Amino acid sequence: KQEVTQIPAALSVPEGENLVLNCSFTDSAIYNLQWFRQDPGKGLTSLLLIQSSQREQTSGRLNASLDKSSGRSTLYIAASQPGDSATYLCAVMAGTALIFGKGTTLSVSS
Amino acid sequence: DGGITQSPKYLFRKEGQNVTLSCEQNLNHDAMYWYRQDPGQGLRLIYYSQIVNDFQKGDIAEGYSVSREKKESFPLTVTSAQKNPTAFYLCASSIGGLDTEAFFGQGTRLTVV
To answer: What is the CA radius of gyration of chain A?
Structure first.
C-alpha cells in the first residue's frame, strides 16, 4: 500500500532563508506528484504538479523535484517570506486518487 | 470565476442526524473526490467519482454516502452510522485520467453537538 511521508513535521526559519521540504513515497509506480499549500482553516491550493516523466517543475520562488526511483520529492522555497507561513502537503497519484502525506507546517519570522 | 464551491462553511449536527455537504464545480471536470482531514492525520479519501452516475468507495467510506447525478455536483451525506463525524471535509475535482491536476474547495467544518 502506498504511503507518503513528509519530513520535518514543522519548520521555523527567519525571513530570507532558502529552505527544503521533503516528501517520500513507498511505491515508485506513481502517475504524478502534487505539492499543495494549506492556510489554517482553509482548503488546499495547488502549487506544483510534476508528471511521472518529469524531473522538476518551477513556479516563481518554488522549485519541486521528483526522483521516482528513490521515491523522493523535494520542494525548494527560495528567499522565504512571512507570507509563506502555511502547511505544505505532498500527494501522489497512485491508482485512482491522491494519497497525501501529513504535511510540513512552515513558520517564517520577520 | 471557475472553481469548486463547498457549502456550508460550518455545519453543526446533533447525534443521530444525517447531514449533507454540498460540492459544486464549474470547471467541467469529470472526476470528483471527497476527503476528510483530522488533526495530525492528513487527508483520507472517503469517496470518488470518475464520471457521472458512477462512484467508488475510498479508504474510509463507512458511515458516508454520495451521489453523482450531475457532472457539476457531488454531495456527501454523513449518516448517523458515522461514529466520529467531527472533522474538516474537503472536496476536489480534476479533468479526469490519472495524470491530471487536482483542485480543492475551501472545505466544510462539521461539528457534532
So the answer is: 13
Containing H/E element for B22?
strand B19-25
Q: Which residue in B100, B31, B110 sits closest to A34, CA to CA?
A: B100
Side by side, the strands of the sheet bearing A72-77 are A4-7, A19-25, A72-77, A62-67, A56-59
Question: What letter represents residue B73's amino acid?
Answer: S
Which three three-digit cell numbers place residue A21?
A: 521540504
In chain B, whose CA is at the least distance from the CA of A88? B42
pLDDT in tens, B36-55: 999 888 899 999 999 999 99
What are the Cα distances from residue A110, in Å, to A14, A15, A53, A75, A105? 6, 5, 38, 21, 17
When CB atoms are compared, the residue of A45, A46, A101 closest to B42 is A101
Sheet with B76-78, strands from edge to edge, namely B4-7, B19-25, B76-78, B64-66
* Residue appearing with cell numbers 508528471: A51
pLDDT digits 0-9 by tens, B53-111? 999 999 999 999 999 999 999 999 999 989 899 999 999 999 987 768 999 999 999 99
| Distance from the A103 Cα atom to the nearest Cα atom in chain B, whole angstroms | 7
**β-pair type (A4-7, B19-25):** unpaired
- Contact of A5 with chain B, judged by CB distance below 8 Å, is answered with no
CA B97/CA A47 separation, integer angstroms: 20
